[in-house]
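Quick one before lunch.
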Amino acid sequence: MITGASAGIGAATAVALAAHGFDLLLGARRLDALEALAEDIRAHSPIKVAVSQLDVTDPASVSDFASEVEVADVLVNNAGLALGRDRIESLDEGDVRTMWETNVEGLIRVTRAFLPGMRGRATGHIVNVGSIAGFETYAGGGGYTASKHAVRAITRTLRIELLGTPIRVTEVSPGLVETEFSIVRFAGDRDRASQVYEGIDPLTAEDVADAIAWAVTRPPHVNIDEIVLKPVAQANSTAIARDGAPLK
Ligand code: NAP
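Model of the NAP complex:
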């Protein structure tokens, strides 16, 4: 089960897990993109791929999604977004709400939908896609960093609450990954989005998918708690060596 599989890290994770032989249920709001991805995967792999329109902010949509499958071995809570780069004093409340409803409430809602089945079958792995924004803060990132700090708190809470069960919980937290993420963040402004990755070799969605696939293919007694991965040219959210230039 992968949420936010219509693009970026979620789509790459679908391809990576298919290569490991996992059957897939893919969810996102853009059904056409999911269907195109599923067709592509089916052309290269014998696994089963189902797609379902999913809006993690909508409880009915999440329960429809969860009802598509009886068995959930791995849940990748990947759906998420950042909106804007405004400082707290000028944050748009609607943007903050959407980030919170998607990144935090959505992740909890989807997890709640699949956890009882995992408990019942005494197996399962929940992978939450966090961010270095769950470890750090930066000016103009208040809404997003708050939501990703919450994702990290939820992941760590689940590790405690699921102790004594075989269910594994992992957080994968990337730095700069070139996907549609910045285009969404800057409301479709592609020039502004491309500046985020200017002068560096950013992570690709495949790099992050590779980390997720590695975490979920460890032996059952191994829990990978956290993976933090960044481009070599990035030390933290704001310390970025563009064009190889040393930081001043
Ligand atoms: P992306 O290319 O924009 O993909 C985001 C995915 O989330 C899309 O498939 C989108 O699909 C889905 N999504 C958004 N809102 C949704 C909703 N309400 N319900 C269901 N799906 C929803 O960005 P990405 O970089 O792959 O982001 C994936 C995750 O990585 C996010 O959690 C993000 O915070 C995290 N992350 C990204 C970066 C980065 O630099 N790119 C760094 C750290 C962490 P639809 O629009 O079709 O619904």
